[in-house]
Amino acid sequence: MKKQTLIIASLFVLVLLFVGGSYLYKNANHSVSAEKSAALVRPYAYVLGNPNAKTTIVEFFDPACGTCKSFYPFVKNILKQNPDTLKLVLRYAPFHTDSYYIVAMIEAARLQGKYIEALEVIYKYQDKWASHGTPNIGLIWGFLPEAGIDIDQLKEDLKKPEIDALIKQDISDTKTLGVNATPEFFVNGKPLIKFGKQELEDLIKSEL
C-alpha cells in the first residue's frame, strides 16, 4: 500500500513539474539577444503605422509567398485597430525563385512613393505571375501601371546599387536571426514561437 502511495505521489510530482515547466517555457522571454537585435530593424526598412508606436512588429516576407499574401490584410487590420500603439516594419526574405528581382521592383517603386501600391498590386496578382510555384516575373510589368508606377523610371531605378545593397543586408539579417521560412514575425523582439494568425494576434496583444 505504501509502495502504491509512493508511486502515485511520484507521478503527481512529475505532472506538476511538467505543467510548471510548460508554463515557464510558454512565458519565458524568447526575445532576440542584444547582439542580434540590430538585425531586426534597419533604418532603411519600410514602416507601416505610427513610427513612434511602443509596439513593433517585424515581418520578414517574400512577395512570392502565398502565406505572406494571406497574412498581409490580417496584420494590416490589426494595425488599423491600433493606430497609435502599433507599427509594422517590413523586411525581405526573398527565398523563392526570382523573388530577389521582385523585391528590387518594390524598392524601385518606393523611390516613386509607391511602395505599398507596388506591394499590394503584386500580391493582388500573385496567383497569375507565381502560379504553381513557377513564377513568371515578366507578367508583373503589366500589373504595375495599375499602381500608378512609371515603368520607365522604375527600370532606371532598378540599376541603383543602394537597392541591391539593401536587399543583401536583409538576406544577411535573415541568417543572423535564423529566419528560414516566410512569413516570419517578431513582436518587440520576441519571435512567434507557434505559427498561426491567432498566435500572432495573441503575441501582439500581450505586447500592447
UniProtKB/TrEMBL annotation:
GO terms for molecular function: oxidoreductase activity. The keyword Oxidoreductase applies. The keyword Oxidoreductase applies. Keywords: Disulfide bond, Oxidoreductase, Redox-active center, Signal. It comes from the Bacteria. InterPro entries: Thioredoxin-like_fold (IPR012336), Thioredoxin-like_sf (IPR036249), Thioredoxin_domain (IPR013766). PROSITE patterns: THIOREDOXIN_2 (PS51352). Residues 17-168 form the Thioredoxin domain. Belongs to the thioredoxin family. DsbA subfamily. This is Thioredoxin domain-containing protein.
